[in-house]
Amino acid sequence: METAQDIMQKNNAIAEADTSVAVPSDLPDEISQGITSGGEIRRIVVDRSACIGARPCVVAAEKLFQIDEENLAYVVDPNSVDQDTVRVAAESCPVLAILLYDKDGNKIFPQ
Ligand code: SF4
User: How many angstroms separate the alpha carbon of residue 51 from the centre of ligand 1?
Assistant: First the structure.
């Protein structure tokens, strides 16, 4: 069975290899990220150094975010929910640890 670490590494590798989506200049060091296949939001990032494991993101979109054994959120499937749900989940984070970017690397949320 795939572990949280496996999923995180896979999604981070896919994101790093996807040259069609610009890398933001302000990415935090410790991240779990996923690239969506379309829409305004193309890069979904969890700042794992900011995450406090409060879980509303998981409640809002459990196929998109899950909590690992360190009690930190990670991106599971960036294409599992629609873009509105991605935004709602990001907005639900009490410490704004979920960052959303467009294809040019511009931050959409939080602003
Ligand atoms: S809502 Fe924010 S703090 Fe809570 S688990 Fe998700 S990313 Fe972490």
Answer: 5
Instruction: Supply the pLDDT for residue 1.
Output: 87
Q: Which domain holds residue 66?
A: 4-109
pLDDT tens sequence across 48-67:
999 999 999 999 999 999 99
Between the CA of 74 and the centroid of ligand 1 the distance, in Å, is: 9
Assign 99 to helix, strand or coil. strand
The count of domains in the chain is 1
Ligand 1 surroundings by CB, under 6 angstroms: 46, 51-57, 65, 73, 92-93, 95, 97-98
- Reduced to 3 states (helix: H, G, I; strand: E, B; else coil), residue 30 is coil
Q: What is the pTM of this model?
A: 0.97
- For tokens 């690397």, name the residue: 105
Give yes or no for a contact between 101 and 108, defined as CB atoms under 8 angstroms apart: yes
